[in-house]
Design goal:
39% helix, alpha/beta, globular, 16% strand, seven-stranded mixed β-sheet, five-stranded parallel β-sheet
């Protein structure tokens, strides 16, 4: 455990009268924290975690220890990597883009007692906090909201954008939609949570389709003859094949929603016109830090950042913010400081639910130490009191136009080119 004087922090962070200002860390000359990273060089999301942590650590002059989880589905490997990070002196750990290994990691998290911020999956970990606070208070989720909040947000998008705009303006010929996804448990659970939200939004859900064969899904979708479909592809292979087939076969069904394959790749233009749910978007409407992050990330890594890069970057800065207030790397002090986080980040306002918020939330979205879902407007930047998913349309030349939330929009919806 290291204790840093208040004067050292205020000078190093450029903070006046103790107020945190994001982006003031540059020039920080002391390595005051060691961050362990649970990423993977085998997947775009896992690599994004590593890259985002590296960028933040280089700006903050923090020490970084990287662990490679490989396929990200091997519990034994995940435990070995986590324990290796701790043995090498990690004061806190960030990462994980898959939920598969979280159950196996829980005993180690409660044993090593270091802040552990999940930055790439909306499932697991934080659901243990309220019921067993002393053992699992170390777990947080940053930037990416829970699956329940994603489903709620899908309903809001459907009500405000699909029904309130595209159907009202007759861009879509009717309110009939299908839900389409792969047969994974994550997709099945998400589709089940989303369906009632779509119905309440005013959509007529006439099919809930799932298959591991993209061609079969497209055939079934065309037979239903709906103007739009909401997608839930958590299997990147199926999602990529579905998007390619949709374009190649000129399927005139507008697509909106989650497709993991498209988070990092527009499939050489095959997915043009698809409206994708994402957790990061290149827009100054979130705040100046967002465009700065995109600029610096692309200069260093020569690729467009996936959401895990942004959420991990924000998580490292949240730890720096907590360290600035705690003035020590002691885990108990850092946890307490993290609980008080209210930090403008790349993806929105980084803030964590309390147990009290979980207990009194009428919408049942709040889970202690989860990233807060932004319902209330702030009147400034970021526009909401938490993070919100972005709905971005893939357009030619690999660009992405933000359509929703309205406060973050950078353009308007255009029918896919193969509809013409």
């Amino acid at each position: 455990m290291r204790v840093i004087s208040r004067r050292t922090f205020l000078q190093a962070l450029g903070v006046a009268t103790g107020a945190f200002v994001l982006g003031q860390y540059k020039g920080f000359s002391q390595q005051t924290m060691t961050i362990g990273v649970l990423g993977s060089t085998s997947s775009p999301l896992g690599q994004g975690i590593i890259n985002g942590a590296q960028l933040a650590a280089s700006e903050l002059k923090f020490n970084l220890i990287t662990g490679d989880l490989g396929s990200e589905t091997d519990p034994a490997r995940a435990r070995a990597v986590l324990n290796d990070l701790i043995s090498k002196g990690a004061d806190a750990v960030v990462g994980l883009s898959r939920s598969n290994t979280i159950p196996a990691l829980l005993p180690d998290i409660s044993r090593v007692r270091k802040p552990f911020i999940i930055t790439g999956t909306s499932l697991g970990g934080t659901d243990q906090v309220a019921g067993n606070f002393e053992n699992f208070k170390y777990i947080f989720r940053a930037g990416i909201v829970s699956a329940a909040a994603q489903a709620f947000d899908g309903g809001e998008f459907s009500r405000e954008f699909l029904v309130g705009r595209l159907i009202k303006d007759k861009v879509l010929r009717s309110n009939a939609v299908a839900i389409v996804g792969d047969p994974s448990k994550q997709s099945a659970d998400f589709r089940a949570a989303l369906l009632p939200r779509l119905t309440r939004a005013g959509l007529d859900v006439v099919g809930n389709l799932a298959d591991s064969q993209a061609g079969t899904l497209l055939e079934r979708l065309q037979k239903i003859n709906v103007p739009a479909a909401i997608t839930a592809f958590f299997d990147a292979k199926v999602g990529a094949e579905f998007a390619r087939g949709w374009s190649a076969n000129r399927v005139k069904v507008a697509l909106f929603g989650w497709n993991e394959a498209l988070l990092s790749d527009d499939l050489q233009g095959a997915a043009t016109g698809y409206v994708l749910t994402d957790f990061v978007a290149e827009t100054a409407n979130v705040g100046a830090k967002t465009l700065e992050f995109y600029k610096n990330y692309q200069a260093q890594f020569r690729v467009r950042p996936v959401f895990t890069a942004a959420t991990t970057y924000d998580a490292v800065y949240a730890l720096a913010d907590a360290l600035g207030r705690a003035r020590t790397t002691d885990a108990e002090a850092l946890v307490k400081a993290l609980e008080g986080t209210r930090m403008p980040g790349v993806v929105g306002l980084i803030r964590f639910y309390s147990i009290e918020e979980q207990q009194r939330d009428p919408l049942k979205l709040a889970v202690a130490h989860d990233q807060v879902y932004g319902i209330n407007k702030t009147g400034g930047q970021p526009a909401f009191d938490g993070a919100r998913p972005f709905y971005t349309q893939l357009v030619p030349n690999g660009q992405r136009v933000v359509l929703y939330p309205n406060e973050y929009a950078t353009g308007s919806y255009v029918l896919p080119p193969h509809f013409g």
